[in-house]
Each structure stands twice: as structure tokens, then as C-alpha cells.
Design goal:
10% of the residues lie in helices and 33% in strands. Helix 1 crosses helix 2.
């Protein structure tokens, strides 16, 4: 394909959606019994900003969601893209993949693709899946997702590379919009042949067929405390009690302190276990020291001890399973400089159960030292805004300025928005820390990606919230955060990272921002 300063070929931007009901207007209802406000449709929903391209030509882009329709077969997203800066040649957007996530239940959906990985919807008329793009010309696209449950009324969009777009309503229709009558994308593949002024580029449409597949999964979140950690994977919750406060070395009898911890955990179990599936699995784990057979038996004895105390505390109205998994499932890597902390984290007893997801969002949460936090801090999703407001804090390191904006509640999560600006005269790829910024003995699974070193700390409770992960099964994970690439001189880039939400009465948190250090008093917007 010919190259020009006036025309380029680009792959359509990737994107992530968070599904759920949402809110608009006055937020005084939050936490009362009135439920979410009435859904309003105000299409298009538009944001502008700079995006990472694989060619380093990081142009400003205007991205507009013009419709989101739910039929009996699909969820169809319509959107428009316009590049506001001059870019050349073939470029690919490096933002997150297109994904739909319900922020209340944590369900995850991705686009339908064919066996070759090509997306259904707007068909590329160019080579290698690229689309013709002209400066100042709007391209119209549509994409297909699995049908979102009918009770979901609005979604949040993240992943165009422009941060979060919350509060996008879903429109229930009998049939999707007609295909473009005269798609003109194929007629404008050369730089010398732009469309007439004021004319959008449109493309042929391909609906999903029998070969179409779409990844589906759950958002998995992780909250940590000194005595326990809580992992939420969709409707499955796992409370891990750190064994160093549970048992003496090489023993399976609970300490006095441990009995109190287990009884505390029992209250969380009783509140959260799905009454239709009241099965609780108690799982014992050891660190990596010792023989497999010995560790398996020790972990089983410890799990049995905890099960008996649970049964004593909450009764026999549950089905109890006990497993001893020894050292086969570590959560932290042993053998490194923080080996002692890693082994301590791996020595644990877990309660795993299915969560009751039928209840409405609520602001209520017990002060339980971290037990159950990942699941119960659920509010209504956030309204749409194209304005992050004023930066709450600014830090600079090695020629990169980090502006941190207020956190925004969105269902069971908070959206952390930051802006990175290269203040030097040369391109810079910043060291964001990643797993190197992990707290001693911390879980590597929730520390991957360039923003994986970010956490939210509640200095009052000591609870730490890690960046959420999207779990698509078969060990296929995706970090719920935008990756950081090479920063061009003097240009700002907006990025988001999504964390499990704290209780509604928590008004500010400390951001652990990897190599930028701890940044205190980041406010949480209650809207």
C-alpha cells in the first residue's frame, strides 16, 4: 500500500467494556434502598486523547460510541474513530483487546472472531486486516459480542486507549441496524483518493457464523491483609488464611489467635455462600520445603482442623469438602530475595465457595480484617464523563511525570486513572516496576503487566488491593490495566488500572505506584 502524510492504513482500535447497570444525574441515592437511577440514552459518547501505536506515531484520536444494541443473538457495538493528527503508513493500536465486563458480577465477554482470529463486523478492505484512514475523516465500525444478560442496562467502556468510558446504555432491539447501503472503504485505499469532504468511511459487514467463537470469563480480584487474603473470581470466592497466624511450625492444631480468625471467616462465609449451592471446600497448602508426601498429609490435617471449627461455628447446613494440596499450588515465588515472605504466603488454609450474586449492590460491609472484602464492596456503576477532573497528585521520576486523578467507583471496582508525560526531548520507555515492584512475598499473578506494580493501600485497615485480572479459563489471563509503551517527548498518555472496590465509607486511599513510590490521599469519587 502506498504511504502518505495524508492517508494511512490502521487496524481498528481495541477496546474493553464493563457491563452492568449504571447511574446518571444526582447521586444522593447511593447506599439507600432506591436502587439505580433511570437509564438515559445520550449517544454519542465521545472521548479524545493520545493512543500508543506500534510505529510510535502516537496520534490523538476521537473515539465515539454511537450505539450498543442487544438482540436475541448478539450484543452489537457501533463506534466511530477519527484521527486528529497526521500519521503515516500502516499502524496498529496497542490498547487492550475488546472486552465486555459486568462490573457488578464480574462476568467477562470478548468479541466474536473466526478461526483465523479475524473479527466479525466491519470487514477490512485492505491487507493484513488494516483499514484506510485519512486525517480528519471519520471511520464507522461495528463489532459483535455474545449477548449480555437482559438485566444489564448499561456498560462501561475501557480499552480504546483513552481511559474509561462509563455509563453507556444498552439498547434492546428486535433486529440490529441495517448494513451500510454503499460501503465505500474499498474505494479509498490509496492516499490520492480520499472521500469527499464530509463523507464518512464505511465498510462491508460480516455477521458471526457457525465458526464464530468468543472468549468468556470472569474478573478476578485480590485483596490482602496481614491475616488473610480474599480472591474473587466471578461467583467463586476464596478466603486464604495465612498459616503463620494459624499453626505452630509443623503442627496442625490451631493457635488461640487462629480460632478467632476462623470464627471471623465463618461469619463471612455465612453471609456470602450461595444458599442454592452451600458447598464449602477447605484446602490446606504448605510451602516448598519438605517431601511431597509429608506436605500433602500435613496440609490435609490442617484443613480438617479448620473444617471442624467451621462446622462448630456455622453448623451443618453446608456441605464440607477437605483437600490437602501440599506445595503444588504456590501463590508466591520462593527462592528469591524475599524467600521467607514468599514461603509464609504459600503456607495457608483456604475456604472456597460459590457467592450469592442475586443481591443488589450495597454499601454495607463488616469490619472483618480483610475477610470477604473482594466480594461485598459493590455499588452501582458510574455515570459517563469525558473529564477526569483535576489531578489529585503529581510525581516525577527520571524524566517522566505521573499525574494521578481521583479514583472512580464502578460497581464492584474502582477505576484508577493516571497520565504519563515524557518531559525530556527523547523517547522514553519508563520502568513501571511490574513484578519488580511487588511487595515482599506478594502474589505474582496479580502483579503482571506494566501497571502490575500498582496497588491501593487503605492506611486505616492495612488492606491492599491489587490490579484485577480477567480470567478466561485454561490459564488464559489478561491484566485489567492498559500497558505502558514508549512515551514520545512532551506528549501525555492516559492509562487506567482497575482494582476491587473498598467499602463506600472509605473516601481516600494510598496509591502504591511502583517506582514512583507511595502517593497518599488519593480521593475516591462517590459518583
Amino acid at each position: 500500500m502506498a504511504r502518505s502524510t495524508n492517508a494511512v492504513a490502521l487496524l481498528a482500535a481495541g477496546s474493553v467494556l464493563l457491563a452492568g447497570c449504571s447511574i446518571t444525574g444526582d447521586l444522593s441515592w447511593f447506599g439507600d434502598d432506591s436502587g439505580p437511577p433511570e437509564v438515559e440514552e445520550k449517544f454519542p459518547y465521545t472521548k479524545e486523547g493520545r493512543i500508543f501505536q506500534d510505529t510510535k506515531q502516537d496520534a490523538r484520536m476521537r473515539f465515539s460510541i454511537t450505539g450498543l444494541e442487544r438482540t436475541s443473538d448478539y450484543t452489537v457495538m457501533y463506534y466511530e474513530v477519527e484521527y486528529l493528527d497526521d500519521i503515516r503508513g500502516g499502524n496498529r493500536n496497542l490498547s487492550m483487546a475488546n472486552t465486555l465486563v459486568d462490573p457488578i458480577t464480574g462476568r467477562v465477554y470478548r468479541e466474536y472472531v473466526d478461526p483465523e482470529g479475524l473479527k466479525y463486523g466491519s470487514v477490512s478492505p485492505g491487507p493484513k486486516g488494516l483499514y484506510p484512514v485519512f486525517d480528519g475523516v471519520t471511520n464507522e465500525y461495528r463489532r459483535y459480542f455474545p449477548p449480555i444478560p437482559e438485566e444489564v442496562e448499561q456498560v462501561t467502556f475501557v480499552g480504546s486507549g483513552l481511559g474509561a468510558m462509563t455509563g453507556i446504555p444498552i439498547q434492546d432491539v428486535e433486529a440490529e441496524q441495517p448494513d451500510p447501503e454503499n460501503p465505500n472503504g474499498r474505494d479509498h485505499l490509496t492516499p490520492s483518493d480520499p472521500p469527499p469532504a464530509g463523507e464518512n468511511l464505511t465498510f462491508e459487514n460480516r455477521r458471526p457464523d457457525d465458526d464464530a467463537v468468543a472468549d468468556q470469563g470472569e474478573v478476578e480480584s485480590f485483596v490482602d491483609s496481614e491475616i488473610a487474603s480474599t480472591t474473587r473470581d466471578g461467583d467463586k470466592e476464596t478466603i486464604a488464611l495465612h498459616s503463620d497466624v494459624m499453626f505452630e511450625f509443623d503442627k496442625s492444631d490451631l493457635t488461640d489467635e487462629a480460632e478467632g480468625v476462623v470464627r471471623q471467616a465463618a461469619k463471612s462465609l455465612a453471609n456470602n455462600v450461595d444458599p442454592d449451592e452451600p458447598e464449602i471446600t477447605v484446602i490446606g497448602h504448605t510451602d516448598g520445603i519438605g517431601a511431597d508426601d509429608y506436605n500433602d498429609k500435613l496440609s490435609m490435617r490442617r484443613a480438617e482442623t479448620v473444617r471442624e471449627l467451621l462446622r462448630e461455628e456455622i453448623g451443618g447446613g453446608y456441605t464440607y469438602k477437605v483437600e490437602g494440596r501440599g506445595k503444588r499450588e504456590p501463590v508466591a515465588r520462593e527462592g528469591g530475595p524475599d524467600d521467607e515472605q514468599a514461603r509464609a504466603r504459600n503456607r495457608r488454609v483456604e475456604f472456597s465457595y460459590k457467592v450469592d450474586r442475586s443481591t443488589d449492590p450495597t454499601e454495607e460491609e463488616a469490619d472483618d480484617g480483610g475477610l470477604g472484602v473482594a466480594e461485598r464492596s459493590v455499588g452501582w456503576p458510574a455515570p459517563f464523563t469525558d473529564d477526569n477532573g483535576s489531578a489529585a497528585a503529581t510525581v516525577e521520576k527520571d524524566g517522566v511525570r505521573l499525574d494521578v486523578y481521583p479514583l472512580r467507583r464502578d460497581g464492584a471496582y474502582v477505576i484508577g486513572t493516571v497520565e504519563l508525560t515524557n518531559t525530556t526531548r527523547e523517547p522514553v520507555t519508563p520502568d513501571m516496576g511490574g513484578t519488580e515492584a511487588l511487595q515482599a512475598g506478594g502474589p505474582e499473578k496479580f502483579s503482571k503487566g506494566t501497571l502490575g506494580g500498582f496497588q491501593l493501600l487503605d492506611p486505616d485497615s492495612g488492606l491492599v488491593r491489587y490490579v484485577a485480572q480477567m480470567n478466561f479459563g485454561d490459564d488464559k489471563y489478561s491484566g485489567f490495566a492498559e500497558d505502558v509503551h514508549e512515551l514520545q517527548p512532551g506528549k501525555p498518555y492516559e492509562l487506567v488500572a482497575v482494582f476491587p472496590a473498598p467499602p463506600v465509607n472509605v473516601e481516600e486511599l494510598t496509591l502504591r505506584a511502583g517506582p514512583f513510590g507511595e502517593i497518599p490521599e488519593i480521593p475516591i469519587e462517590q459518583r
